Amino acid sequence: MSAISENKQGLKVLFAGAFLQLFLGIIYVWSVFKNPVSAYYGWTPSDVGLTASFMLCFFVIGILAGGKAQAKISLRILVLTGGLMVAAGMCATALIPGADTNTAAPVFLIYIFYGIIGGFGVGVAYNSIITAAQKWFPKNRGFATGISVCAFGLSTVIFAPLVTKLNNIFVSNVNYTFLILSGVFAAVALLFFSFIKTPEQIPNASGANAPVLKGRQYTTLEMIKTPRFYLIALSLMFGTSVFFIINPDLKDLAQNRGMGSFATYLVIILGISNALGRLGAPLMSDKIGRESADIIILAVTALGAFGLCFAQGVFLFVIIAFVAFCYGGYSGLYPVLTSENFGIKNIGSNYGAVMVGFMLSALLFPIVINRIEDQKTKFMVLGILAATGAVLVVILKIINSKRTKEED
Predict the structure, then answer these.
(1) What is the predicted pLDDT for the residue at 88?
(2) Considering only CA atoms, which of 292, 305, 394, 396 is closest in space to residue 354?
(3) Mean local confidence (pLDDT), 376-398
(4) C-alpha–C-alpha distance, residues 285 and 305, integer Å
């Protein structure tokens, strides 16, 4: 820890980035906008709900594009660009005519402004901040990445009640909420973007961390030609599937299991557990290894899915907390797992490619799994998917163990 405290410039970058991530995490707060937006703009809740899907999809595309751009554009400019895109998307959303005007606005406008422009901006800034954190702390990449993505996860805990409060104040004018948030996001981006930069020379690593700097530094094209890339990306896709299925229907699940009056608390527990997982999993990986930590959280996710087949009452709360912790853990662990396997030089673009697994999980599984009507069968399938992800990482660990012996 002394090495961390001595890296004063790195700490400035790390905590400025964490503060920015706290605002960027609003990507996960769309559920509190759903009903007010439907009422103000005159769109159906199901149409409005698709905004989150567009935002999540373009979040990953933004990660890919931002990672690729890091070879030519400085991180601070990318962070500023991403932050201002989020602010611009919110501002444009606020300017869409409401249902009480003479102009009937099509719903695709909010997909473009808030979902596509906003989601893309979040991805660009998010990836740049994580890249800076890892490069300032190569010996403590789990710690640095954990701090960064933990702040991103805490956004739900902070912004969900704040946005709800604003919506209650502007009960018939949700566009005012968007305008206020737009101004705040623009101000935060302008105040903090200049802190985000990479060191002129990445500090030397030693011991278990040495390969990340001294080993082969894969380009993204080289990475996607390796079996290890597909093991990592597919394990991420399978592991996150459980969360993507239960999160949208969390309140309904609580109602069906006799805990409807406590549904709000369940949402809070989910947000806190998600944030703790983002910090806890990468810190655990610093101690026991990246693959071992990943196998554990994938196995816990699988057990959680199997438990949801019959969980009732308090046991339901416990399982949801564990599943959310693991979901947050993937966000904190996979950037580190990527740099561990493919080097830190091109971590921005490489992690963006790995995140395609995340995007496919968010897009495909809600469509495919939700076709299963029987709830027990649905959770059994999800448990098998997560367990398959754990098996893939076991294979990855075996491959890396053989590579290490050959290099020695």
Answers:
(1) 96
(2) 396
(3) 96
(4) 23
Q: Is 95 helix (H, G, I), strand (E, B) or coil?
A: coil
DSSP state of 226: S
Query: Could you please report the per-residue DSSP string of 373-404?
Result: --HHHHHHHHHHHHHHHHHHHHHHHHHHHHHH
CB atoms within 10 A of CB 156: 23
Burial label for 143, CB within 10 Å (0-12, 13-18, 19+), is buried
Token pair, residue 24, equals 């960027």
**15 token code pair:** 């905590």
pLDDT of residue 206: 44
CA distance 274 to 268: 10
The pair of three-digit structure tokens given for residue 173, joined into one six-digit string: 């004018």
Q: Which tokens in the block code for residue 342?
A: 């493919």
Q: What is the pTM of this model?
A: 0.82
Q: From CA 241, how far away is CA 101, in angstroms rounded?
A: 41
Query: Structure tokens of 116?
Result: 């596509």
Separation of alpha carbons 22 and 28, rounded Å: 11
Number of H helices, E strands in the chain: 19, 0
- Distance between CA atoms of 245 and 365, rounded to whole angstroms? 7
Rounded average pLDDT over 359-365: 88
- The angle formed by the CA atoms of residues 158, 161 and 167, to the nearest 5 degrees, is 130
Closest CA to 211 of 68, 349, 345: 345
The amino acid occupying position 153 is G
pLDDT digit string (tens) for 194-215?
999 888 765 554 444 444 555 7
